[in-house]
Amino acid sequence: MGAMVFKIDPRAAELLGHDLHLPPVLPERLARPALLERFARPPDWQPDIEVETWFRAPDPVRAAVLVPLVMRERASVLLTQRTAHLKKHAGQISFPGGRMEPTDADPVAAALREAHEEVGLHPGRVEVLGSLPTYTTGTGFIVTPVVGLITPQDGDHPALQVQADPGEVDEVFEVPLDFLMDPRHHQRRAFDVSGAKLEFFSMPWSPRPDKEYFIWGATAAMLRNLYRFLSA
């Protein structure tokens, strides 16, 4: 899922700052046992953003995304870059996911179905931990983020392989979870639109000097909420 209802370049938005005063999530909290415990017994916490300030949709649509945590030696988050020709969220970095269909029993079923369709991730590879609070996008989606663990390889599963649906996904990639759970990498940005300041988070990640993945909008906000949940 992406971000705004109008075409903008988020890299051109004013950089308001970073949350350097907030601590990163401790490494031990990113391990599988700690993640299982956190979702089994969630703490009292408050998400930073639940509804985008530019939300105006009269008839929002229910949707779900999978937040896939790949439990490598250094855990990572699997993300997609959407194709440029899509009507909504074109070219943006997203979690696998989309609108709920009448055949989906619940948001978990929708997230698993969409992940299977978009990146070839079989539902049997996903150990669902639970869900975060819904996030309402400016484009009119009420999104349930479903968090799941993926074991990249073990005795029961062959090496993890993904296959992007070329109609929706240009690229599938992974970002280290500890990078995303460190507020030093959370940029606060804003656009001035018709006299209103529209603020959003971004989390640019560069795996090498000539490549940058600009994570922003709804995807960055849901990652920020995951940070609040794991650090509470």
Instruction: Give the DSSP E fraction (strand runs of 2 or more residues).
Output: 25-35%
The helix-strand sequence is EHEEEEHEEEEHEEEH
* Multimerization status: single chain
Q: Tell me the CATH topology.
A: Nucleoside Triphosphate Pyrophosphohydrolase
Kindly state the number of beta strands.
12
CATH architecture: Alpha-Beta Complex
Integer count of domains: 1
Structural class from helices and strands?
alpha+beta
Helices, by number, come to 4
CATH superfamily: Nucleoside Triphosphate Pyrophosphohydrolase
Based on CA inertia axes, which overall geometry fits?
A: globular
Rg estimate, integer Å: 17 Å
Largest sheet: 8 strands, mixed
Helix percent reads 10-25%
Record keyword descriptors for this entry.
232 residues; alpha+beta; Nucleoside Triphosphate Pyrophosphohydrolase; eight-stranded mixed beta sheet; four-stranded antiparallel beta sheet; 4 helices; globular; disordered N terminus
Summarize it.
The chain is an alpha+beta fold and 232 residues long. The chain has helices spanning 32-40, 107-119, 177-180, 217-231; strands at 14-18, 61-70, 76-82, 93-94, 97-99, 126-131, 135-136, 141-150, 169-176, 187-193, 196-208, 211-216.
How would you describe the overall organization of this protein?
The structure is a single chain. The protein is an alpha+beta fold and 232 residues long. It has one domain (15-231): Nucleoside Triphosphate Pyrophosphohydrolase, CATH 3.90.79.10. Helix content is 18%, strand content 34%. The two termini are 25 Å apart. Mean pLDDT is 90; it is low at 1-6.
